[in-house]
Design a protein that fits this description.
Blueprint lengths: L2 H14 L7 H15 L9 H14 L5 H12 L8 H11 L9
């Protein structure tokens, strides 16, 4: 899986407000992006279920500044992570956390 594809997919889905998260790669990028937006501290090496449990209460309380942020929350709330975990997921989480070009898919 090329990490860029997962990143672009999340950004496009939020921009178009269409579709759902299709796997842990998208989940990890989206989770990192959410943590950046909501200023949530998360450790680099976190497994899917633990990440999901960390995010749930914060997602429910997050209002978002715009429709893209709200759609990201909607997708994260609806997603049920798979148990599989690999290094690319960590990479995507960190990319989302450090994102400088929010909502730009280029």
């Amino acid at each position: 899986m090329v990490t860029l594809v997962a990143r672009q997919s999340v950004i496009l889905k939020c921009s178009m407000q269409a579709s759902v998260m299709l796997g842990n790669y998208e989940f990890y990028y989206g989770a990192g992006l959410f943590c950046r937006l909501a200023e949530v501290n998360v450790k680099e090496e976190i497994h899917p279920q633990e990440l999901h449990e960390l995010l749930l209460p914060r997602l429910k309380d997050f209002t978002g500044k715009d429709e893209k942020e709200r759609y990201l929350v909607k997708m994260l709330l609806a997603y049920q992570p798979e148990p599989e975990y690999d290094a690319q997921m960590k990479e995507l989480l960190m990319w989302g956390l450090g994102e400088k070009k929010i909502w730009k898919a280029d």
